[in-house]
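### Sample
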Amino acid sequence: MIRSDDDPLTWVMLLDQLSEAHTHLGELIAEIERDSQIDESDAMVQLGHIYGHLNRFWHGRKITDGNMDALYTDESSSFPDDVILT
């Protein structure tokens, strides 16, 4: 379990990643609604950015003491191998 009281700096980092993913997803939805079309290349780039935030959130739960450098690595940005999609 992740608790804000145990490691407040990491907690803020994790919430920031979710907030950023939420913001960018909202922007993508607004763009698609505004243009009445989906530009696949642009959507792919934007989804990659959103996934990066979600992946850093997921991997960040294992980072202690708010170590920002550990959050921004290729490994932390990659799709998790401990998540099962069904």
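Residues 8-77 form one domain. This sample (DinB superfamily protein) is used throughout the tutorial notebook.
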